[in-house]
UniProtKB/TrEMBL annotation:
Molecular-function annotations in GO: zinc ion binding
Domain B30.2/SPRY: from-to ranges: 182-377
Pfam families to which the protein is assigned, alphabetical: PRY, SPRY, zf-RING_UBOX
Classification via InterPro entries: B30.2/SPRY (IPR001870), B30.2/SPRY_sf (IPR043136), Butyrophylin_SPRY (IPR003879), ConA-like_dom_sf (IPR013320), PRY (IPR006574), SPRY_dom (IPR003877), TRIM/RBCC (IPR050143), Znf-RING_euk (IPR027370)
Name recorded for this polypeptide: E3 ubiquitin-protein ligase TRIM21-like
Annotated organism of origin: Poecilia formosa
RING-type domain sequence ranges: 15-55
Superkingdom of the organism of origin: Eukaryota
CDD domains (UniProt xref): SPRY_PRY_C-I_1
SMART domains, per the entry: PRY, RING, SPRY
Amino acid sequence: MSTASCLLSEDQFKCFICQNVFTDPVSTPCGHNFCKNCVTENVCDDVPFQCPVCEKMFFPRPELEVNTLIAELLDEFRRSALRQNAEAEIPGPVSGNLFTKNRKIAILCGMVLLFILSSQVNHSPPLTEETEGNAKGSMEDIWSCSPAKRCQNLTSGQNWTAVGPLSASQLEQIFTEVMKKETPRLLIRAELMRAKHYAVDVTLDPDTVHPKLILSDDRKQVSCCNPTGNLPHDPNRFRYLKYVLGEQSFSSGRFYFEVQVKGKTNWTIGVAKESVSRTDRVRLIPRSGFWSLTVRNQNEFFGLSSPPVPLSLKSGLEKVGVFVDYEEGLVFFYDVDAAALIFSFTGCHFTERLHPLFGPGHNNDGTNGAPLIITPVSIVPQ
């Protein structure tokens, strides 16, 4: 297929309800697009929203804001149509080829952005404004690469008859590069955004905290070390491992929480089954009831399976997201700020309640004195 020959049509910008070109286009969480007035008129807030295309139900009703990406694509399509009409009115091979070349570039931009948008259809929620901005930024990166430069530089040449065939080849190559580069990143971002919709409120359980650890008054932070280590005896308290469990536990469904690790050189985060040993020295591996991620010496990352899996991560990790799907046996760890997957456990067989697990590590003379902080989950990317 020649990319340059696949022209966008007006049908691709038509609302399913009114069958007219979009006015203030909005996107539903399931990825379908409508005029804002068409999909929001005559509805009640206390009634579940049903997508007119796939009939999927949403409650509470989603906030449908104008999708600026589609609106901009529609504007570009209209401008491209005007240029096409202008081309027909301008005589001469040079003008015609120049307009053809510009139109192909505009069409490619639209196709690439539509591709990026469509990659989100099966991964709710829809693209946010930041994701749209990142997509535009990525387009700028692609245009700066060598094939795009060669295509762009054609305007400065004198042999205009070469514009058509060269543009088709170059644009198809650029389109392939965009798809290869953007698809994995945007799919992970979409999965992270979906995971955030299962956010739970986690507080630290003072009955399980090791005597050397210190909890904040709101039980959202834990650090080391308590100089006295005097805490009441409790059978649930960790006596050997310097850890604390979340007070909340889960035996079904999905849950997600985030932990700030900024300023720390050693820490462990994950989930543990309710019956893990509190008094013995045990290995933090799935067979012992632990599914966790750990960091040593600031930049030595390990997924604690058996054997541990060393991980190569960029420095500067500040916030970790933990997502669990109980029935599917999944535990995912995300770099929240980079919207990247760090490590995952799959094929887990959970048979009892799971608790969030936190280990702030030793103080190390103050170099690891910062606390682990359970932070509120923001659905909008930072």
